[in-house]
Amino acid sequence: MSEFIAKIDDYIEQGVTDGLPVIPPSVERVEAMVAASGRGADEVVGLLPPTYGEANVRDVAINATMAGCLPEYMPVILAAVEVMLEPSFHLDHLATSTKGNAPLVIVNGPIRKEIGLNCTKNVLGPGARANATIGRAIRLLLINVGGSVPGVTDHSCFGHGGKYTYTIGEDEESSPWEPLHVESGFAAEDSTVTVMGSEAPRYVSSVASPKCPEVTLLRIADTMSTLASFGMTGRSEAFVLLGPDHRNAVAEAGWSKADVRNFLHERSGRPAADLDAGQPPDRPGSLPHLREREGYRPDDWIPVFGSADDIHIVAAGGAGIVSLVCYGSPSLDYGRHGQRRIDRPNGVPR
After folding, report:
1. Prediction pTM value
2. Which end of the chain is more exposed for a tag (fewer CB within 10 A), N or C?
């Protein structure tokens, strides 16, 4: 046992962990991970910024083992990494930015239940191995292969808990609406992963009632519209994790997901005069620059989002008066969400 503890301490000293103990990646464990992926160990997944280390399936398996993953999580991790490697995601920015955004991973489809992914109570908290370790595997891979080292190449001012792990499943079974992946054109029986570079979640508290769903939605829109929001000086996107009390009350009032998105888009924003007071005039991205670029006047309403399509509604969380807003990057130049179907080994249901 002392030798095992010494090995863990050694990994921490080497800087190949996230600061927490890891499971030493034995040959047997890593081989089981690779086998569960249905891919060859030497198959290249991509070049991970900021140092552009080449990541193959074996590298992913090693870091997943260290994170505490089970082999059946491998298809999810690989799909998430592939989304992050898409050019529109701009992982190079996300891995080095001072803003501290982290990959928010949302899983849809049958694989959620197969791997025990939490979608309800405490969905962003401790308790479920899949939620805790899938996001952690991605973080370790970014550190150990991508070279996104905290305080060295990762320049986040503060960071947030999602930089350890930020993985959830959508609560499709109790949602009154189509799940995220079906909205995006995938089949209900497909398993998918969606990833966005997200700030820490923002809580929205509201007692919900189908008689006045606007009350809850106005609070969500207000949460999106603070002067401190990066989205108020750029064009961002957001995932709204609607708890069951809120989504059921809104749906009972006859509102569709499209209705919710349109309402939030119309109500999230600020008068230009507010931004004038809240932004220094000599800073790029402040109101004068926006006005020059897009023709705003001081009395104009400045929306947070470019369109309602930049707002994504996800059913998640447990019963209560709380929902969450997960804000994207300060502009759509990086961290833009992407989706991918999860490829499963032959003979395994999708």
Report:
1. 0.94
2. N
| Within a domain: 239 | no
**pLDDT single digits (tens) 183-201:** 999 999 999 999 999 999 9
- 38 is written with which tokens? 């249905």
Tell me if 241 is assigned to some domain.
Answer: no
User: Which stretches within 226-350 are classed as H helix?
Assistant: 244-252, 257-267, 272-278, 287-294
Distance of CA 302 to the CA centre of its chain: 26
Chain segment 8-55, per-residue pLDDT in tens: 999 999 999 999 999 999 999 999 999 999 999 999 999 999 999 999
Residue with tokens 């030798």: 3
Domain-embedded: residue 120: yes
Owning domain of residue 23: 1-198
More confident residue, 67 or 229: 67
Q: Tokens 């047997």 — which residue?
A: 28
Total number of domains in the chain: 1
